[in-house]
Amino acid sequence: xxxPSIDAATGDVAxxxxxxxxxxxxxxxxxxxxxxxxxxxxxxxxxxxxxRWALILGLMMAKAALIVAVFMHLRWERLALICVVxxxxxxxxxxxxxxxxxxxxxFAARTLYFR
Amino acid sequence: xxxxxQPPGHGELPAALSADAGATAGWPGMAADMGGDRAMFRxxxxxxMMWIFLLSDTFIFGTFLTGYMSVRxxxxxxxxxxxxxxxxxxxxxxxPLILIAIMTFVLITSSGTMAMAVNYAxxxxxxxxxxxxxxxxxxxxxxxxxxAFEWSKLIEEGVRPWSxxxxxxxxxxxxxxxxxxxxxxxxxxxxxxxVVARRVLxxxxxxxxxxxxxxxxIVEITGLYWHFVDLVWVFIFALFYLW
Lengths: 115, 243
What we know:
heterodimer, A: 2 domains, 0% strand, B: mainly alpha, 7 helices, flat, Cyt_c_oxidase_su4_prok (chain A), cell membrane (chain A), transmembrane (chain A)
């Protein structure tokens, strides 16, 4: 794997266009195919419970990480940009967490009073 | 832009507007702050702007998916089983989720051809680059067509944004909103790709840039948008269709 060739003297932007062999993209492509196929198998074999959820979320995150890191080149970007892209979505995870608790409560209230 | 044209220079700012005029207050001060030409990210400005746009889009899709999750958890009527809803019968065998699986593979493949287009852009092989971008657009169009087929099938089966015959009424609203918004992004992306690919082929980006070697940043920026569309589908596939 190549590291970015940043022009040390100028920190020049133009020098940052990292060149990768095409083979890297084919490898990632193949890996994404494989991970998608595995996700599909989870449904095909009707796995249930915690195993199903661990597999669905794990495969989802692996695919997302591959796309963002390699296809979107984030791996080879400057740390300032990586932080700007990665940190704010963590706020979304907090929102999702709070909404799980809230919707569990709404479900309980609906079953008790409105059914 | 004609070849060799440089962006307007910022070297001739009046003294009051230069970046070191820290004490300047009011509107001139704000103008100095905003126009100080201080680059935070040291990447092409278009790339930084695309990342920021994609971050805003992440929040839109993130809140959509979170809203869908809340609605689904709190629904007291049973949620339709996506595995069955999106099954297709091909040659006598019913395959669960098959159309969605094919759509996923089509979109991933389009992401692969796009990544290769970016690679060829930086190698200055503009014909190969344009060809790969057209291929990407074709896969995108294929994806949207399959989505149109999926939508028509569901509408035919009586699914509406306010009701559906298979269970929880909220299913329709979530389905049409989330997949519709994603489909809109794919359609816009296809147009974006076609426009940029045509310009790449016409040689518009040849001979521009600081060293006159051609500036193909736009291909990478278009690529960022396209990969993002694929990225969002990863989440929709997992959270909407596999749940």
